[in-house]
Every structure is written in structure tokens, then in C-alpha cells.
Amino acid sequence: MSLSPPLMAHEADAVMPPNFIEFYDSKSKFKRWVQRLEGAFNLYKIKPHKKNSYFLHYIGSELYDTLCDLVSPSQPETRTYEENIASLTNYIDPVPLEIAEYFAFHHRGQQEGETIKEYMAVLRRMAAGCNFGSFLETALRNQLVCGLTSQKIKDRLLETRNLNLQTAFDIAIGMEVSQVESCKTREVNIVQMNMKRRQPVTHNLQAKNSSVHSAPPKPCYRCGGDHSASKCTWINASCNYCHRIGHIKKMCLKLKNSQKVNLVDVEESEQDVVQFV
């Protein structure tokens, strides 16, 4: 059984490596995608003369059309890998104006809900286009202090001697953590106080409801018993006083009103006798 000859170097190089790199997405930063592409070239040991072919393939059809328009009447395939990279970089990520970048950096303050770590990361990214050089650490320190939203942290940093960037960052982070914990503690205390204030009210309501439920029922207006009038056995009884149906004599309202009138007449008669004497 004959063995197949080994692949030649140029044949092995033509095989597409698995999971090489994803196609370029316009949502990604072009420069950083190119950096990852270079890493893939090194990882899979892609030869220099093959880089342009890989690049033109993985930039995708949309960006390839853009490149063709940029280099017309030349063709991207006839140009070098470095030339095509430069053309697209200048188109997608043009070099910003240094003064404009510095202006944006100088006016960038900490935003609402932004942590100090997040704010510092933004400042470092913005400083990349300002060409600070050896002044970078000082510029970052100054903008960090000036842009903080917490006046308490800012005052602490402003009164610290020989303040460098790392010290300012460490102090600010420590105070930020302390403020967050203090705020959480206050919120817990407020919730507990509100719960304690509501407890007496709940107790009073329960006591009130209990007293309502424990109140004795009204007597039956038909017979005076401790049951509902609708369940009274005298519901069809005839009153011996007013002769109406539905109650007995001792619960007759007409009788009670008559007794009240007689009582008033007796009292008035007694008063007349006293006055006459």
C-alpha cells in the first residue's frame, strides 16, 4: 500500500486554518480588529505574501467594495497588505485633530452613575489622541481630580501633598467604596425605622377591628332575643297592643312611645302641683 506524498509547503499554506478570525463587523473598531488579525497571522504562522489575501477575504464584501472605491483605478489585489491597511485606516479611523481631542479630554467629567474606575478608563482612552507624551500621568491626575462629581473626595485630594496619579486614584476609590457602604447602611436604617413606625398603627387597627368583631349583636326587634330578626320565630306574630304583624307587645314601638308620653304627662302634672302650692 503506497503512502501519499507529504504536502508541500505552499500546499499546506493554502489550507484555511479553522477558527482563524471572525469577519470584520462595522460595530468593531477597525484598528483593534487588525491587531487581532495580526495575532492570528502569528498564531497560525501565515506567510507575509499570503496576508493580503487573508485580509481581503475577512474584511467582508461591504468593506471590500469600499476599498475598491478608495484605490480605484488600482485593484486591492495588486497592492500590498500594508497599503490596503493604511487606506482603510485613514477612511474608517482618520487621525483626529489634537486640539479637538484635548478639548474633549479637558471637558470630560465623571457622569451620573459612572464609577471612578470607569471614569479613569474613559480618560485614558481619550488621552491617547492628545499627544501628552511625558505629561500624560500629570494630565490624567489633573482631569481625574477636576472631573469628580463628589465634592468630598475632590476636597480630600486637593489637600493631599505630593499627589500623583496612583495615589489620587487609590484615595478616590477607597472613599467611593466608603460612601457606597454608608449610603446602603442609611437606607437599611430608614427602612427599619419606617417598619417600627408602622407597627403601632397596625396594632391599633387590629385592636379596633377586634373590638368591632367582639361587639354584641343588636337584639331582635321582633321579640328582643339575641338572634337575627329574619330568623325570629315571632316573624308572623300579631302584636297584642297595636295588632300589627311582625312583633310582640313588649317590642311594640307604639307602646313604648305611648309610655313615654304618659311619663311626660305625669312629670308635667307634678310640676303644676308644686307650682300651685
Could you characterize what this model shows?
InterPro entries: Retrovirus_Pol_polyprotein. It is a single chain. This protein is an all-alpha fold and about 280 residues long. It folds into 3 domains: about 10-90, no CATH class; about 100-175; about 230-270, no CATH class. Helices cover about 60% and strands about 0% of the residues. Helix 4 (about 60-70) crosses helix 5, helix 7 (about 115-125) crosses helix 8 and helix 9 (about 150-160) runs antiparallel to helix 10 (about 165-215). The longest helix has about 50 residues, at about 165-215. The protein is elongated.
Number of strands: 0
Q: Which percent range describes the beta-strand content? A: under 5%
The tally of domains stands at: 3
N to C succession of SSEs: HHHHHHHHHHH
Sheet bearing the most strands, described? none
Q: Helix/strand-derived class?
A: mainly alpha
Integer average pLDDT: 83
* Helicity, as a percent range: 55-70%
Indicate the radius of gyration in whole angstroms: 47 Å
- N- to C-terminal distance: 157 Å
Rough outline:
elongated
What does this entry show, briefly?
The chain is mainly α.
What's the helix and strand layout?
Blueprint: H1 9-13, H2 30-43, H3 51-58, H4 60-71, H5 81-92, H6 98-106, H7 116-127, H8 136-147, H9 151-158, H10 165-214, H11 253-276
Helix pairs in contact: 4-5, 7-8, 8-10, 9-10
